[in-house]
Amino acid sequence: MARRNRMPPWHEHIRLRNGRELLIRPIRPEDAGPMRAAFSLLEPEEVRQRFLHPLKELDATLLYQLTHPDPRREFALVAAEPLPPGEALVGAVARICIDANGKDAEFAILVSHYINGMGLGRHLMRRLVRWAKGRKVQRIYGHVLESNLPMQTLAASLGFHREPTLEPGLVRMVLELPPAATQTATNGDTPRD
Question: What would the pLDDT profile of 117-138 be if each residue is shown by its tens digit?
């Protein structure tokens, strides 16, 4: 019987439309240094859209939280150069965290302007949805700036609906995952948009 080289769970190589190859994989503690370096390459608006307020740098506490997700309730993927963790420049991060109620989970995605517009955000969101379904989450939500129309459009195309929030300038994008949910939001493995 021939042995196949299999990638570890949640690892996949993808090629973007511009030909750039990336490795999507779970975040690792070794990603802290490259993430700090990549953060300095982000535009202020990218940071504001992800963190919902201006942020000049990722401090040690935040970096630790980002790179050490609690496996019982958090999941985070990076899209990075196909190099070992700690050496690979990280171009995108997607996270989801299950709330204390065990039924809802909050997502957040950041795709650098160097690789956005190539379907990577959609691809990462599908992976977060797949993980959440596996954890029997019933509802996924994310807070998005009203001005972040690309994220709202992406979420809506995957079945999310928009809910108002009490915070001015923010909307909540919500995806209901009924127990017998179909795999509609997770079909497709290759970034297309």
Answer: 888 999 999 999 999 999 999 9
Give me the long-range contacts of 128-131 (CB less than 8 A, separation at least 24).
128/75, 128/77, 128/94, 128/95, 128/96, 129/158, 129/175, 129/177, 129/185, 129/186, 130/183, 130/186, 131/10, 131/75, 131/96
| 12-182 fold | Aminopeptidase (3.40.630)
Q: Where are the domains of the chain?
A: 12-182
- Which tokens hold the place of 2? 């021939």
Structure tokens at 15: 């090629």
pTM (global) more than 0.85: no
30 forms beta bridges with: none
Q: Is residue 181 helix, strand or coil? A: coil
